[in-house]
Amino acid sequence: MLDNTEQKKNAGDLIPLQSLGKKGSSPAAGVKKDDTRPDYQGKIHNLQKDMIGRYYDHLTAAAEGKGGKSVYMMISGNPVELIQAFDMIPVYPEVNALQLAVKKQSLPLILKAEEMGYSTDNCAYVKADVGMYFSGCKTPFATIPQPDLILCNYVGCNVYLQWFEHLAQYSGRPIYNLDIPFSRSESGEPSEADMSYVVKQLEEVIEVCERLTGKKLDYKKLQRIVALSGETGDLWSEIKKLTRQRPAPFDAYFDSVTMMAPLYCLRGTEDGLRFFQEAYKEMKQRADRQEGPLPEEKFRFVIEGPPPWPFLRAFRDMFSRWGAVAVASTYSTVGGLWEFGFRHDPLRPLESIASHMLQWNLTNRNFLHRYQQIKDYVEQWNADALVIHSVKSCRLFSAGQGDMREYFAKELNVPTLLIESDLEDPRYFSEAQLRNRVDAFFESLEHRKLMAAK
Amino acid sequence: MSATEIKTATLESVFELCRETAQDVEFTAAKTWLKERPGRKAVGCFPIYSPVELIHAAGMLPLGVIGAGNQIEITHADSRFQSFVCSIVKSTLELGFTDRLNFLEGMLFHSICDPARNLASVFARNFPKMFIDYVHFPQNLASPLGKQYLETEYRRILSNLERRSGHTATADDLNRSIQLYNSIRANLRELYRIRTESPHLLSATESFVLTRAGTLMAPEEHLEMLQQVLAAIPARPARPKDRIRVVLEGSFCELPPVALIETIEEAGCYILDDDFLRGWRWFTGDVPVEENPLRALADSYADRSYYSGAKHDTREVKSAHLIDGAREKKADAVIILAAKFCEPALFDYALYRKALDDANIPHLLLEFEEKTWIFDRARSEVETFVESLLFD
């Protein structure tokens, strides 16, 4: 934990998460900082803010016709390496939507979409994005360019298919449904037929990109980019392993979701690699100094589910006040799962990209694979409890989490808390209610620990 | 009694029997058939489209396990699936928890939406004795790769089914099953043709229970029943009523209660077409009988099927099919009848709404739940809608 002097220094040049992407912004004026609350920001947050800021500037430039072809994709299990190899710009509606929620701008856009006929029961990521699309594609952090290609990487999430179907209709731009067979085997290993289908589709995608850009694929360039992804994934995996120790040097949920942005927007680039090199260095230093994000680490938990983006800070405080630190999270593996050994391989670029999409991301793995993933986290990262944050918008994550709770609490005897809100729509976050449930849970955990110690 | 009266009496009793079967959550008809000969087995098919010919050719009876409607209370499954998940997922799981599915060898689930997919996993964990498999239908239909992949997927499913049944399906077995189900589907299409051309002769409720009953019995018996019904319908004494003509869309999975369909009709609608049990009426024509039946089935999945909520075929615009269909059938209006919390149907609605507005076709959105008993609100919404069309 940073000592008092460092705290004061950082408070001055602290760039709040909310101003992500805005160039040269100063700390929010007139906002009193509660000095008893922990400082969540660090050097990495600033570096990330800077890089993502530049990424969004790039998008705005493309939107203003200053060059660059845009490809819309989803963050989970995607072939961004191919897009980078053609010097096209990856645009992620999911990331745009969550940024809007973080900046507390999602609700008016959601309401706009609902006026257009979208249901209160449709995923709010989509609604915020559609609302934004019909508001001139303008956000506080960028103008989002129209897609030159909509590349729907269908990796498990059925909403992806609908979302991009709608955007294709609204924009009139070409769409390619890159169909990734869902992980159906017990081991999670894809079949030969699965692999072959995906690789052949990737070859079709290459043809589409060649037609779009007028350039032939530079295979060596692709290999270099895939190598960057491999190295990046390796560093991310090493960073995640650091939270196995006590105390964990960072929060594997609240800090991980911040580190995720460069993983999605900058994977396959030199900047992206550099970010993770810095992040690893910083986190390793903290680990070596036995520093954690809180004054004292009292509880270690694994957390499943997306965060309530509009209320990230308030949500984090609910756990921090108990000295509870997340040591692993499933949400941070949406973009890719590297901690169990997978690496992008420059010697087999298309096959390893296919492998990443088929097997090594959260959304294409089945519900029982997720139980196993969580179980591995609880065991290998020494967690005291599991917190399931169920979000109304995302049925991929949430539908059936009652069964997950049953499994962990009753069969594995892992103390489990199930709480509900939403990832994008602020209307579903009942702060007082959530805090009560979290408090009750950790109080009983504390009691259990005391009893066990006697 | 005259010959016509006898035929009519038989027709009514057939509909009554089908209605009973359609609402039977004990699978009585199927269990009776299974007991008739030792060694008979059945496999449950969760929505939407299931390649039933594979199950049949492997020597087992395909049954539509499509929720429990308003027939059972959900007391176990609601602790596993949240309140914002559609009812059919919970009621189907409840069927499992109340031991009503123990007589099945297993269940086939299919890629349709996120809750249904997670349900397959929850089934696998909670009912380990059941054979559970999941069919990944291709969502890349713009490329021939999609249906080529589906052929390999069918081969995989078939092998698993064969292991369970102990019978290896030959190409002839598959083609015989294809021909049988082709006949059934042709008869169902004929029912729908009658409804479009002479809606006073056959109601949507009647064709619904006929179709649904068929998913709960042996196909050979269903075919016989359909043939008898089709023979008797033309002679039915029925006069056209003063109703508006509508096309219904959005109920391709969770089943509306029979009484709700009746309510919509009684509120003043002739339902010329619908997508009830779309999965069991997936094809627009016969599946060809060829040397490679799996390829014929896969090709037909992609190219000889109706557009619907779970099929994301980027080759054409879904709403265009809805509108063309409504126009061809000279419908006055479209009713989007979507199950509550059904994400695919509700997403489609946003696009349908705009397209229908642009095409100047009056439309109404009605949400329903399979488990409701009271339809007053639906009735008055439809009545108001009908009146606005009749008296504008």
Question: Would you kindly provide a written description of the structure presented here, covering whatever features stand out?
Answer:
Mean pLDDT of chain A is 91; it is low at 1-37. Chain A has one domain (4-18, 39-453). With 454 residues, chain A is α/β, with parallel strands linked by helices. Chain A has 17 helices and eight strands. In chain A, helix 3 links the parallel strand 1 and strand 2 (89-91). Chain A is globular, with a radius of gyration of 21 Å. In chain A, helix 4 packs across helix 6 (124-133) and helix 8 (192-213) packs across helix 13. Chain B has a domain at 29-172: Rossmann fold (3-Layer(aba) Sandwich). Helices cover 50% and strands 11% of the residues of chain B. In chain B, helix 1 crosses helix 8, helix 8 (204-214) runs antiparallel to helix 10 (258-266) and helix 10 (258-266) runs parallel beside helix 14. Chain B is globular and about 65 Å long. The N and C termini of chain B lie far apart (45 Å). The model of chain B is unreliable at 1-6 (pLDDT under 50). Chains A and B meet through helix 7, strand 4, helix 8, helix 14 and helix 15 of A and helix 5, helix 6 and helix 13 of B.
- Total DSSP helices of chain B: 14
Percent range for helical residues of chain B?
Answer: 40-55%
Computed Rg of chain B = 20 Å
Shape of chain B: globular
Number of strands of chain B: 8
> How many strands of chain A?
8
Which regions of chain B have little confidence, pLDDT < 50, spanning 5+ residues?
1-6
Shape of chain A: globular
Low-confidence stretches of chain A: 1-37
Mean pLDDT of chain A: 91
Amount of beta strand of chain A: 5-15%
